[in-house]
Write a structure and sequence with these properties.
With 143 residues, the chain is α+β, with helices and mostly antiparallel strands. The chain has a single domain (2-142), classed as 3-Layer(aba) Sandwich (Aminopeptidase). It contains four helices and seven strands.
């Protein structure tokens, strides 16, 4: 397993993973835009194939934010997500970040459990956060 910086030629594969992972996937243009504006964008690779990605940035002076994390369904439960999150947090810490936040669908119990296993705690809930009206759970980790 290798984690490396995203390259533009990875976009097609990242979009495939995004579409298989989310009911309302980010469009390719938004994913490319996040890369272009300098958001942290890492991919996990196995046997020269991109199998997951994470996008993150600094939201406030001391706060990082995970925008999106997804792993190909065939590669889940093999620590790719864990490695991506840990690497992103390590990078954010070099910028003096003290906490990292993210939003996750309240119904996505598997993702909530995953983030809790990494030390994230539920901070609050945002009603009707997603386009389809689903609530989001805001999760936070002190780093």
């Amino acid at each position: 397993m290798m984690v490396r910086e995203f390259r533009p030629q990875d976009l097609k594969r990242v979009v495939e993973i995004e579409v298989m992972s989310f009911d309302d996937p980010y469009p390719p243009q938004l994913l490319r835009y996040l890369y272009d504006i300098g958001a942290g964008f890492l991919v996990a690779q196995e046997d020269n194939m991109v199998v997951g990605y994470i996008i993150f940035w600094i939201r406030f002076e001391d706060e990082g934010h995970i925008i999106s994390l997804a792993v190909d369904k065939k590669y889940r439960r093999r620590k790719f997500g864990t490695k991506l999150v840990q690497t992103a947090i390590d990078i954010l810490k070099t910028f003096g970040i003290e906490k990292v936040k993210l939003e996750v669908r309240a119904e996505n119990k598997g993702a909530i459990k995953f983030y809790k296993s990494l030390g994230f705690k539920e901070e609050n809930r945002i009603p009707h956060y997603y386009e389809n009206g689903d609530d989001a759970v805001v999760m936070k980790k002190e780093v």
